Amino acid sequence: MHATQMPTHDDPLxxxxxxxxxxxRRYTAAMxxxxxxxxxxxxxxxxxxAAPKTTTHANWQRWLKHITEELPDGVELxxxxxxxxxxxxxxxxxxxxxxxxxxxxxxxRLGSRVHVLGPVARLELRSxxxxxxxxxxxxxxxxxxxxxxxxQVMAPPEAPRLKLIAPKxxxxxxxxxxxALDALRPADDNGQRPEAHRDTADHLAAPFAVRSAVS
Length: 215
Description:
This protein is 28% helix and 17% strand. It is built from seven helices and nine strands. The longest helix is centred in the first third of the chain and has 17 residues, at 21-37.
């Protein structure tokens, strides 16, 4: 597991993760428990949360393809249009049927590690971050567990947004990412899943806490 390292050259983003080692341990243990409890034939559904401007972008389908390729085979990808099919937005009804969430924010600039989520995406994230794997999609780094990001609530108070900052030295070999992907992997025909860690129960109090509050 990649331990949090002290930033260098006075760059607060120059770390592998913003999560503390204890947060990483709790997160991976919770992910292993989710994976171990999945049964053969259980569908795995992941919702992609994106602003209307993103879903109408010329690269939207390419981004969905990229996300699909990064997730385990067999995962069903949903988004606003496919999930609600012209019906009224009913997140509270849908969320209980989801196994994970991928959020796409607005990058500060091309290639930036700073991504801003709108008010709706922030609420969708809040409803799942303490229960299921939630991943930030970045165009240059791919999927990053939100637990590894630094978060900051932004104005306006009546409809707050959320800033997520990816660590500068993020590694795709991160134990948190591998654990999150395992939690989203459908069980094979023999029902083979990774065994849950023995200490999982001790780590469920706040397994997905991020460095800054998302409330």
